[in-house]
Amino acid sequence: MFEKVNPAHPDKIADRIAGAIVDLAYNESANPKIAVEVLIGHGMCNIAAESSVHISATDILEAVSRIAGDVVVNYHEVAQDPILARNQANAVRCGDNGIFRGVPVTDEQRALAEIAREIFARYPSDGKYILDSDRLIICQSCADTEDLQDQFPGAEINPLGDWTGGIDVDTGATNRKLGSDMADSITGGGLHGKDLSKADVSVNIYAWLKAQRDDVPVELCCAIGDDTVDGRPYTEIVRIARDYIRRIGGFEKFAEWGLV
User: Fold this and answer.
1) Residue-level pLDDT at 92
2) What pTM did the predictor assign?
3) How many domains does the chain fold into?
């Protein structure tokens, strides 16, 4: 059983805005320290960022407008806490405590992820989808229900009828759809809105990639300040995650679909 949401879901819009801001931070510095939270809905977008680099209001407004349209933006940026900053001053170390799990993606999860992408390519608006064995539930806003029924015979299409979604109907918050992003690999740490020094990003990506490669579950933990994880230097964990983010096109692109 698996649920997938698409990049136009309000929570994913929040994730994408957070990712875009992290991309902006990396434009300012090779190794910024940043953590971003976004709450968006009903014409308002509230953003809080703890950052080692300043991001201009113009760049913030452009990113939000491009992703979410015409909303009022409240952006609050503060410097990273100096005690936390000292942890990374002279070396790359784990930026947080955490427990991390990587689990191979199942055929069912892979199938639903493909269905979600296929529908979104045709209807790029708010949608969510569930696959439970032979039961496929499709909730897709601004869509032709008959068209979807023809495409997916036997699926339950919009059980309450046609609907419109998005941030004018519902609110979105960063990292609220981690089940969609990580499937069985989900733990307490959030993937989005953070730089690569944060274990929530780098160790989650590393554990997931290792699980897919070896086709076995991976469980790891770390403490803030650790310089090794899974017997590897933390710098190598960060490099692996950095290569993955670069390969898919950046943190905003990562936020669109997550790891699955």
Assistant:
1) 80
2) 0.97
3) 1
